[in-house]
Design a protein that fits this description.
The chain is mostly helical. The chain is 80% helix and 0% strand. It has 5 helices and no strands. The N and C termini lie far apart (45 Å). One of its GO terms (molecular function) is zinc ion binding.
């Protein structure tokens, strides 16, 4: 779907989800550092920076679509991918939230947040496309959803940075890694 802010956001979020999963894997890659607060905080700061950067890209695309009044276009392939991805991301989000709670890992919970945003984006593509089919005058729904999701990701990224940067500074002298 080349003219959809939600689809662009969804694709960007899928890339972000892969990147955030790699960050969480890095966080737990060193057996000696499994309980490392410093490593946890670094992972959260990196996730915060990635969230802020991706939100700016999603917001830019969504605002561009609203400014140029581009309506969404959905084909059957994107429709089926949206359904499968929406469900898969929701299941992954629940698993990540549960595991994050057990491990008390903010990085893993943040990764779960990213997966739930991916699920919402997948379903929002379907909703905006179905609404547009019946009501052409609601062309702006897709771009508006893209702006909303971009703002949510931006807020979460900024909150992560505000919470975690001071913690990284506090713990940097306590733990050394190879």
């Amino acid at each position: 779907m080349r003219h959809s802010a939600s689809a662009f956001g969804f694709a960007f979020n899928a890339t972000l989800d892969i990147l955030s999963s790699f960050i969480v894997l890095w966080r737990y890659s060193n057996a000696a550092a499994v309980h490392s607060a410093h490593r946890e905080y670094i992972a959260c700061v990196v996730l915060g920076v990635v969230f802020v950067l991706s939100s700016l890209c999603i917001l830019g695309k969504a605002i561009h679509n609203l400014a140029t009044r581009e309506p969404p276009e959905v084909d059957d392939f994107l429709y089926s991918v949206s359904i499968v991805s929406g469900i898969t991301c929701a299941v992954l989000a629940v698993a990540k939230f549960m595991l994050g709670r057990v491990l008390t890992s903010r990085a893993l919970i943040t990764d779960g947040f990213n997966s739930i945003v991916g699920s919402i984006m997948g379903f929002s593509i379907l909703i905006s496309a179905e609404v547009y089919k019946d009501h052409v005058d609601v062309w702006f729904l897709d771009g508006t959803i893209g702006v909303l999701i971009g703002l949510i990701i931006l807020a979460y990224g900024v909150k992560l940075l505000v919470d975690m940067v001071p913690r990284v500074r506090q713990t940097r002298n306590y733990e050394r890694f190879e």
